[in-house]
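Most newcomers find our protein records easier to grasp once they have seen one. Nothing more is needed to start thinking about how sequence determines fold. Here is such a record, shown just as it appears in the course material:
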Amino acid sequence: MNSLVNRIINCYRYKDLIIQLVQKDVKLKYRRSFLGYIWSILNPLLIMLVMIIVFGNMFGFATPNYPVYLLIGQTCFNFLSESTNQSMFSIIGNSALLKKTYVPKYVFTISKISSSMVNMIFAMGALVIVSIICKVPLSWYVLFVPVVVLQLYIFCMGLGLFLAQATVYFRDVQHIYSAFLTAWMYLTPIFYSASTLPEPLFKIIKYLNPMYGYITQFRIVVLEARMPDAQLVIQGTGVALIMLLFGAWCFYKTQDNFILYI
């Protein structure tokens, strides 16, 4: 227990470095772009329009406020995809620096997940705009959204730490994860309603796909203006913490040998 507390304190000492790395990532993403940060809002809007055109006729008619429904799923899954993909290269991408000086290796992974989190917050501007256009009633329950986002952030942090250390030893992980992520996206109710699935498949997704829980909580507080079920919140928080502990444990156990493979 003392060891865990010491590591958290040690991580806090590098908060300024993490903040600087996050600022650098966010600035680099839109460097030399004419519209700059506006793309954070335009991009999800354009993708949403394309998905409505493609999937709207198939799934949209039975789902109230389908554009908002779609955008919530898209925003959450994009954060998972962007943060974990970037975290995979957070160690090998900084190999030159790690060979020259001592910097805690997890700092680079945390900064990648956090910069993706900032991008997600910017992208929520699109969600606000679409909610206003669709006349989705605003309720006090939206104050629960940061709790859902925190669960998702912790889950992505754990998965990102696991992928970062695995990619150092096995470069093939990036290709395997790319295919896995595509399958994961189609097995997540982003553009379709889970209620349209056959009962056995619905149960598999509900209990084995963590993204179902996070996206469902988000949709409930925004679209249904009520608190999510306690079971859904406990399940989402528990999965996030387990993933964080597992990812941090794998990273800690293998980090001393990174220098031999980067």
Q: What stands out?
A: The radius of gyration is 19 Å. The mean pLDDT is 88. The chain is about 75% helix and 0% strand.
